[in-house]
Design a protein that fits this description.
The chain has 11 helices and 22 strands. By secondary structure, the protein is of the alpha+beta class. Among the domains are: 10-101 and 186-205 and 380-402, 2-Layer Sandwich (Nucleotidyltransferase, domain 5); 104-181 and 411-426, 2-Layer Sandwich (Dna Ligase, domain 1). A hairpin with a 4-residue loop joins strand 2 (16-17) and strand 3. Bound molecules: adenosine-5'-triphosphate and magnesium ion. Adenosine-5'-triphosphate binds at residues 31-34, 61, 64, 99, 231-234, 254-256, 259, 274, 277-278, 281, 351-353, 355-356, 390. This is Cell division protein FtsA.
């Protein structure tokens, strides 16, 4: 194998591993409960092949944001170290996931004059350069970090929904550019924590973008689907349709809130509550739960030192009441993003919280939509320990890095000489685009 033969010199994942055109892709998911690292080799044709993985528990984040630099840095270092040792090489730069920090998505329309000639690559480049300039000049985005700016569908002389405009004659060429932004300080802090662990951040990728790549099929993405990623501290809701991400929302509530509720309700330690949740917990109730008793370990400060027994139904009631709160917020976010009607029926749950027994059934009832569980797929050699729903974003980052894409936040197209027209990004554009896609389905 080309990589195994390399000495542990510093390697940039962007490097080509000649002669087979292989590339290293390294990913880091810095989450509220854990930091996970993955190293894979991608050749552009076959599924990426995992050569190293590492995980380390981390409590340096609050609700998806770095709150303790030293703890985060230590966990990043340990997770990547484990992955590097397994891969037998050192990584220089990584793709990193962001699931909070004021993520926002928008559509920036841009248009240029073609004067009736056949559209060529140069015209598309001019259009995209104009789009980039327009986004950079947008006052509403000032002070925010642009994570992604991906061209979506083109419009030729008012005919919209064109995937590839090259070769057509037209007077005017337009495109909607999908822009995902985040507050700048959280991005800087995440970048700093990773850099302190001696890794360069190649890109910060929004959570909804990463996870969707590992758990959704192309057809689902086309027809309309919402991904609800329940992390420990944050739940992200990402709406897809027409093959692209149409909307993104982050709810500051997650599976760690269930643990906290259990600890408070039964006066036990968080670690005991976590065990109760994963071992006996569920989001669906059955009459048997009234008769099945479970043991609650005492707090260290409890002088009696005796554990108590409660009906499993009590544990499940606590879990269900938090799940109810969470899915109310999810339903509201879906509504605000225009996820209705025939294109708004399918929901995929992922993130560690989706591993809670019965949560898909619960969500199906609470959201009145079809709900399935999404675990990451599409990589060769993904270790069992990283194949649960908690690793959807991590695996998605590898897919992200393995596929070539046009992202104006990264690849500046050639400068433009033609004047661009079109309003600045508008919040209402999303609903319109989603509506437009729905009517095409
Ligand atoms: N089998 C299970 N049953 C219930 N909850 C589970 C199970 N497995 C994992 N979880 C929960 O999933 C959460 C961790 O999920 P995940 O790893 O996706 O979060 P994270 O990425 O660290 O956090 P975030 O994305 O919010 O920053 C924990 O709260 C954990 O208790
Ligand atoms: Mg996460």
């Amino acid at each position: 194998m080309a990589v195994a033969a390399l000495s542990p010199a510093k390697l940039n994942p962007g490097n080509l591993l000649k002669p087979r055109g292989e590339r290293l892709v390294a990913a880091l998911d810095v989450g509220t409960s854990k930091v996970a690292a993955l190293i894979a080799i991608a050749d552009g044709e076959n599924p990426p092949r995992v050569i190293g993985a590492g995980v380390r528990a981390c409590n340096g984040l609050r609700r998806g944001l770095v709150a303790d630099m030293a703890r985060t840095e230590t966990a990043v270092r340990a997770a990547m170290d484990q992955a590097e040792r397994a891969a037998g090489l050192e990584i220089e730069s990584v793709l990193v996931n962001l699931s909070a920090g004021g993520l926002d998505s928008d559509v920036a329309p841009v248009e240029i004059d073609i004067a009736g000639h056949r559209i060529e690559d140069a015209d598309v480049a001019t259009l995209l350069a104009a789009g980039r300039a327009r986004i950079e000049a947008n006052d509403r985005l000032k002070g925010r970090t642009i994570l992604h700016a991906e061209p979506t569908l083109y419009t030729i002389d008012g005919v919209d929904g064109v995937t590839n405009p090259r070769g057509f004659h037209a007077n005017r060429l337009a495109v909607d550019i999908h822009v995902i932004t985040a507050d700048t300080p959280p991005c800087r802090n995440l970048d700093l924590a990773v850099r302190n662990a001696h890794l360069n951040v190649e890109s910060i990728v929004a959570a909804g973008v990463a996870s969707s790549l590992s758990i959704l099929g192309q057809e689902e993405r086309e027809l309309g689907v919402a991904v609800v990623e329940i992390g420990a501290g944050v739940t992200t809701v990402a709406v897809h349709g027409g093959g692209m991400l149409l909307g993104l929302a982050a709810i500051p509530m997650g599976a760690a809130d269930i643990t906290a509720d259990i600890a408070t309700n039964f006066a036990c330690a968080r670690s005991a509550a976590e065990r109760l949740k994963t071992l006996h917990g569920a989001a669906t109730a059955s009459p048997r739960d009234n008769h099945e008793m479970i043991e609650i370990p005492p707090l260290e400060t409890d002088d009696s030192g005796e554990s108590r027994r409660v009906a499993k139904a009590e544990l499940i009631a606590v879990i269900r009441s938090r799940a109810d709160l969470l899915f109310r917020e999810v339903a509201q976010a879906l509504g605000e993003m225009g996820f209705h009607g025939s294109a708004g029926r399918q929901v995929v749950l992922t993130g560690g919280g989706a591993e809670l027994r019965g949560v898909a059934d619960f969500a199906q009832g609470a959201l009145a939509r079809n709900v399935r569980l999404g675990r990451p797929r599409g990589l060769i050699g993904l270790p069992e320990a990283q194949s649960g729903a908690a690793f959807a974003a991590l695996v998605g980052l590898i897919h992200y890095g393995a596929t070539s894409r046009i992202d104006l936040a990264r690849t500046p197209p050639r400068a433009s000489s033609r004047a661009a027209r079109g309003p600045e990004t508008q919040p209402g554009r999303f609903a319109r685009l989603f509506q437009q896609l729905k009517t095409q389905i």
